[in-house]
Each structure stands twice: as C-alpha cells, then as structure tokens.
User: Fold this.
Amino acid sequence: MKKILLFSLTLLFVIGCNKDDDGSGSTEITNSYVGDIMLRTQQEVNDFGSLGYTSVEGEVCIGCVEQNDIDDLSPLRTLKKVKTLSILNNTVLIDLDGLENITELDNLLISKNPLLENLDSFNGITTINTIEFDDNGSLRNIDGLSNLTAIREGIKFSNTRVIDLNFENVSVLGDFESIDSRFESFTIGATKVGTFTLNNSYSLTQLNLSNFEEMDHFYLIENNQLTNLNIENLQKINGNLSLIENNQLTNLNIENLQKINGTFSFVRNVALSSLNLENLTSVGILEIKNTRLTNVNLVNLQTPSEPTTTIITGNGFLTNINLNNITKANRVVFTYNALEDIQLGGLTTVESDFTIKNNPNITSINLNNLTQIDGYININDNQSLEAIYVNSLTVAEDIEAKDNNQLTTLSLPNLSSLKSLRLHNSKIPALNLESLQNRPEPTSFFINENPFLTSTNFGAMTIAKDVRFEGNIGLTDLPLSNLTKIEASLYVVNCDNIVNLNIENITEVGEMRIVSNSQLETFIANNITQATTIIIHGSNWDLSTITMNNLGVITGDLHIYDFWVHSNFTNLDGFTGLHSIEGALKIINNDNLSDFCGITNLITNGSVGTYTVSQNWYNPTQQDIIDGNCSI
Assistant:
C-alpha cells in the first residue's frame, strides 16, 4: 500500500507541476489520473479520495477482492469523469453516495454487491458505452440510470433482481442481454438495437418493444411467464430471430416484420396456436419445430438473394403453411407434422436436400415446377400419401420413397439424370422413368417390397451401377429395358411370381444374386460374358435350368448351394463357356446335383482360384473332371 500511495503522490506532484505555457505566464494545474486504480479497503478509498482527482483515464475498481470492508464512497466525491468503473464484491456497501458527480463514464460493471439497493448516484450520466450487472441481490431498481439517452455498445443483466426496467429515454442502444432476471415491467425507447437477448426472465408477463424497427439479432428464450410479446413495428432483422421455449406465450404481434437475413427459429412455444408473418418476404433459414401451431401465414415469403433453408418438424397440429412463392431453396425438411399438403408450388431448384417424412395426413405431393435438385430427395413414412408429382424434374442426385404404404403414383416423366432411386414398400404398379439417360457415374436402383409392381421403364439408359429387385412379388419378369451393363450388382431376391428370368440384353454384370424366388424355373443370361460374383441359392425352389453359355470370366466367386432334395437342379450345363474363376468356386449341399460336365472346360483348360465341391449328389474332384468322370 505504501508503494501504491507513494506512486500516486509522486504522479500527482509531476502532473501538478506541469505548466501550460501560453506566453501569459499563467499556470493550470490538472488533476487527472492516468492508469488503473484498485481500491480494496475503506482506507484505500479514503486515501485515494484525499488526492482530489476529478478524472481517471483508466479503470477504478472499488472492492475487487472478496470480503472487503468498504461501506462509504463519499471520499470519491471529486470524481467527475471515469473511463471504466467496476464495483465488485462489496459485501457491506449499501449505496453509491459519493459518485453523484460523475457525469462522464464509458463502462460500468456492478457485480456481487449483495446489500446495494439503488444507483441513484448515477442520475447525471446520459451516455455510456457498456453496462453490466451481475448478482446484486438487493438491487431492485436502477432508476438512477433513467437519464441515459445512449448505451452505445450494450448492457447486460445476469442473475438480477431488478423489477422495473425503464429506458424510455434511451434512443441509442447497442446490445441488450438479460439472463436469469426478475423483471416485471420493461420499457426501451430505442428504435434500432444490436443484439437483444432475454433468457429465462422469471416474472415478466408482458414485453412491449413496439418502438423497435430494426435490430441485428433477437433471442427470446425460456421466459416461462411471458404471455404477450409486442414488436409490431419491427420491420427488419439483420441476423437471427429466435423464439424458443416461451411456454406461456399466447399473443405474438410481429406482423409487420419484412426481412430476416439470418435464421428464424420458432421452437417449442407450445401455447401459441397461430403464427402470422404475412408481410415477411425474406428469410435465410426458417425453422419451426415442436410447436402446437395449427396455422402459419407466410403467404408473401419469397426467395432472398441466397436460397432459403426451410425446416418444419414436430408440429403435430400444423395443417397449413403456404410457401408457394419460394422458387429456390437450399434445403427443405418437413417431418412429423399434421400437414395435409406441402405448398411449395413455385419451387424450381433445391441446392441441397429435400425431405418429407412422417407427415401422416398428406395424400399428395405436387412439385411440378421443380426442375433440379442437387442433393437427395427423401419422401418416407407418410402413411396416407398416394401420389408424388414431380413432372418437370430433369436432374436429381438420390431419390428415396420409402414406407409410403398407400403410394400408387410416382410421376417423374422428364427425369433424365439420376444418381440413385430407392423405392420401398409402396403400392406403385408401374415405375416409368422413360426419359432416363446414361450419366458419367451410372445410376443405382434399389426396388424393394413393392407387391403391386409389375413393370419398370429405365428409358434409354444402357449402363447402371446397381439394379436390385427384392421382395416385389407382383413381378412376373425382370423388365430391364435397354440395360446392357450393370457395373456393381444385380439382385433378384424374393420375387416369387417370376417363373422365367431372361436377361438376354445384359452382357456384363458385377455381383449377381438370384435368391428366394420361389416360382423361378429357368434363368437365362446367355449374353453375359463377365461377372464379378455370382450367387445362386437353393431357395429358388423350382429352379432347374441355368443358362449362361457365353460367360467366360468371373473375377470373384461362383456360389451354388442349398438346392435340397425336392429340387430339380441336377446339372451345370449352363456354364460351358466358363474358363476363369479368379476367386472361389463353391458348389455345396445340392442334393440332386450329379452332372458337372458343364464346367469341364473351366477345369481342364481354364483356371480356378479355389475349388470346393461337397455334400452334393456327386462330388467330383478336379482330377475326376479332367479324367472325364464329370457325372454319374
């Protein structure tokens, strides 16, 4: 303390001896302290006050350490100007008498002063940069700041017990933040605000911010007593608007809002039944989640300079939302809503993904102006959906229509470029993709569990990556249109009404699985010359004829197994052209297979990676076949 005081007296002497020589011989003694002052005890307050400074170009910290004895600030009465004033951890301080002559203050921090009752000593301050209040348990009013006209950078309340907030004279306000407050009334005169945050206000029921016309961000979160919010003159938000978990909010006046440049999040405000944003024309990201809204009016919402992202999810009572004026979107998500219709009639382009999932009341989806989607389309688990019309779509990445149990129509007549299609568990009788063309990365088709499907049309496409038909019991043949090459996989599984499977157009295939087609009798693929892997399983109960006479090379494995005693599968005559299996040949557990002469050329003149033949009616070794003992 002696060093601090000595430093202060020396500085005072130096400053006091400075002369402002203007030629008149007069001398002006200044009393400004340049630097930071920490006053940790009442004695330090008294000592500093005795120096008579009127200005501090730095921080004055009163208290600063826990359990100090400061209870009287009257020695600081000469102060008129302070850059930063921090009043911290003063456990016995009741008032701020002694600071009433301060009229110029840039920054004010008042924290952890449990007995402080008011700020009446600050009524001479009209402008300030920042204010922060934190955990002042007895501070119920801040009327001493009622003459403020400008809070240039912002004000923050944390764990405050202030009841009435009256900033009606404040015309300039930077940011406003309140966390864990007890406000009962709330008035702010500014028309333009930076970021406004009100989080967990325990007592506030009415929030009237009708003066606000523009702000950067607005966050209203977990204010469980708030019933009315009035921001009727707000027209523009430069960033985000978040209304989240205000459980008692029943009245929201926001009807004149025209533009939200960032994200509008409306989440779990469960008491509000209607959301009227009829004048909103532009929003960056729209999120409406987990509400009890029945109606949302966005009738004038249009596409901003950057396409909108729309996420509407978990709104179990929402039956109507009009987004017909949006033409371009980045991402669209509709999940778990009560919507009866997806009103996106003007949508032409989606830059990312499009999801419609678990909306049990939707019967039809009409996206007839949509021409291009650069991500995936997921239309899944919509129990009442009967028809999907996307008649203008020409380019898409991945389309998935899954578990739409009543779906009978999927209309994509102009789709020419597609990365993949997954159609699962529908009632579609015909899949017509008549405009499909080849693309650099071939298309994949996964057509599963569509019991009414009888025909498919893959247009002019000749090369596919994957073609998998599984569980389509209505198919009587495999309609592969103009396909000649399947690069990765061809599956025909659980298609129980196919009797004769003829894929004569195919010349090359990757992995091929023919499994569990209970009525299948013949399989003909005479033009296939090369395959990666072929798996033929005995669950094709009636299969007796396999003909692949031009198949020369299998770069992986050939598996034929589990044709049990009831089967008619007795020979391998369909593999006479085979001369190379680079992987494994496994012929196992085929009870009536007795003729291996069809692979004589393979064994005698060709090559096999590994040879496994066992538990068949006849199990010849490779030498047996070479010796001419290929059957019994």
